[in-house]
Amino acid sequence: FIWVGYGKTFHYVVAILNNRFHNFFVYQSIEACILGTLCYIGMRIFNFPYAATISILIGFSAMIPVLGAYIGVTIGTILIMTHSVILALLFVAYVVILQQFKGNLIYPYVVGGSTGLPVVWVILAITIGSALGGILGMLVSVPGAATLYQIVKDNVVTREKAKAVASLENSD
Prior knowledge:
InterPro entries: AI-2E-like
Organism: Streptococcus thermophilus
Order of helices and strands: HHHHH
Oligomer: single chain
Radius of gyration: 22 Å
Membrane topology: Multi-pass membrane protein
Subcellular location: Cell membrane
Mean pLDDT: 87
Protein name: CpsX
Shape: elongated
């Protein structure tokens, strides 16, 4: 049977896929819960309307990498505008500050090394994923790209080790 020799490789790829998807979604969920909670606390302190609804929306939309925050803020702003335009502008300012706090303090520690993918590749993966598959493409593109990145990285390390061993054997 042709696939017999590929059992270890298949298991290796599936193990990396499982690890990357698991880490990404667990840490993305933790980060979204933290963001939603902080949003709710701030909205209650500043007496913004629809605090619970908008905070839950922002928490769920934070699951979508990069663009999720904009989706949640846009819908939240429209909801708050039904009460007051000034409150809506204050809400946008509050969320911008909250996003800066999240991006500089929370995200690096919570999601930081969960995928092992450099930032440039994350942005590229999200762009390609959204173009090919919309929101679902955005969700699976980062862990998918992280899987490919890890496989290539492991392959390079294996080849470098083989070269080092070969050069040691030739020098004797």
